[in-house]
Amino acid sequence: MISGGGMRGLQRLGLGPRVFLGLLLAVVLGACTHERTGPVSKHYADFATRAPRNNTVYVCHAYGCRLQTPFRFTDGDIAALKTLMSKTRKGDTAAEERRAVAYAIGWMERRVGDVLGTSADRPGMDFTASGDPTQQDCVDEATNTTSYLLILERNNLLKHHTVSTPFSKENLLRGVAGWPHWTAVLKENANGQGWAVDSWIYVNGENPAVVEVEHWYISSLAELPSPTR
User: Which of 68, 89, 139, 161 has the most CB atoms less than 10 A away?
Assistant: First the structure.
């Protein structure tokens, strides 16, 4: 499978003329990780989209954040998320918080999808889907998941983690199967461990995979863990 948004992501980052150099380096270096430093806001600037404002997110869809539609999580939605996460956690630990986050992200995707039509989003990459407002590529998914995580964070629903800047990984030696793929990231407060939170590989509303960033998207998407339960 091709990681959606790879080429568009590179273009939006201003890497057009250097893509060929990157491809040549990939042949030499194999797998590459493009970790990004700085505030999460830089990701939104890079992809010309908007960070959440209060409890309103600007949902990316149609591939590469081509469309951006506002959606407001109501006070009732926030209360429902708080209840869901509380019921999901089996203890006050970072691992249990990640489980609760996975359920919350799935809930938020379904909530948004039922209103915007992205509930029809198919998993992975679809060559025919670019421009389709019901579909989302990995840039859309990574951006939206980051926005959802920020909503959780600003409503004090995260204790053991902080929302970090999305990043991408690639292994162009595998051809299109190793094209750059983006993910949202949580950082564990106690030890700085980064956790990829990836919804793109599953149908809309399924719990995302939550996995250590160094173990995410190493050989193939097929080797990622199942949705977090």
Answer: 139
